[in-house]
Design brief:
The complex is a heterodimer of chains A (114) and B (114). Chain A has 114 residues and is mainly β. Helices cover 0% and strands 51% of the residues of chain A. In chain A, strand 8 and strand 9 form a beta hairpin. In chain B, strands 2, 4, 5, 6, 9, 10 and 11 form a 7-stranded mixed sheet that branches. The N and C termini of chain B lie far apart (37 Å). Chain B is an all-beta fold and 114 residues long. The chains are: A mainly beta (114), B mainly beta (114). At the A-B interface, strand 5, strand 6 and strand 10 of A face strand 5, strand 9 and strand 10 of B.
Chain lengths: 114, 114
């Protein structure tokens, strides 16, 4: 069965600083990969996804993520964080040829200092 | 845009009450899911449904049941609410039974059982 690890429970950055949120997955083949964002009191919204092809994918709100097969990672990055980026971020995987139910990591809470 | 609507943002119920959480999606999605979200535990799948009248248990189904009488509506039922069911409940839907399918989430229902 696939699993997702987000090693950082909380990340604190200053506004304008760069950001990287880590995500590692465990799966026999290359899974489908997603990042979702949850603003306070809201549901989750898709930021970006990777299915195949170019390993650097662009998403909404200036986010990007890079798939690294050798490291089983799909880290989320943003070059300059805005205060409005403060939220909970979830990495998720979908299986190829198997269950269609996404598996979510436990989430990383991003705190942005002015 | 796909819209997933949960009937209540906030609910307060008494221990022992039967509680209904309603979820409606407007894009003819095949799959619907109920998750519960607790701090530090991420999203945990309670039940899911891949078709009308079809349901499958997720990771934590105890104390819950579900109903899907129409394709667009998926209800979560707490048979006898208990204080340990105080949580944020998230409904989601997805289009196809494949892993490369984005999940769309409702805004969540924060349930407090007193």
């Amino acid at each position: 069965a696939q699993s997702v690890t987000q090693p950082d429970i909380h990340i604190t950055v200053s506004e304008g600083a760069s950001l990287e949120l880590r995500c590692n997955y465990s799966y026999g083949a290359t899974p489908y990969l997603f990042w979702y964002v949850q603003s306070p009191g809201q549901g989750l919204q898709l930021l970006l996804k990777y299915f195949s092809g170019d390993t650097l994918v662009q998403g909404i709100k200036g986010f990007e993520a890079e798939f690294k097969r050798s490291q089983s990672s799909f880290n989320l990055r943003k070059p300059s964080v805005h205060w409005s980026d403060a939220a909970e971020y979830f990495c998720a995987v979908g299986a190829r040829g198997g269950s269609y139910i996404p598996t979510f990591g436990r989430g990383t809470s991003l705190i942005v200092h002015p | 845009d796909v819209k997933v609507t949960q009937s209540s943002r906030y609910l307060v119920k008494r221990t022992g009450e039967k509680v209904f959480l309603e979820c409606v999606q407007d894009m003819d999605h095949e799959n619907m899911f109920w998750y519960r979200q607790d701090p530090g535990l991420g999203l945990r799948l309670i039940y899911f449904s891949y078709d009308v009248k079809m349901k499958e248990k997720g990771d934590i189904p105890e104390g819950y049941s579900v109903s899907r009488e129409k394709k667009e509506r998926f209800s979560l039922i707490l048979e006898s609410a208990s204080t340990n069911q105080t949580s944020m409940y998230l409904c989601a839907s997805s289009l196809r039974k494949t892993g490369n399918t984005e999940a769309f989430f409702g805004q969540g229902t924060r349930l407090t059982v007193v």
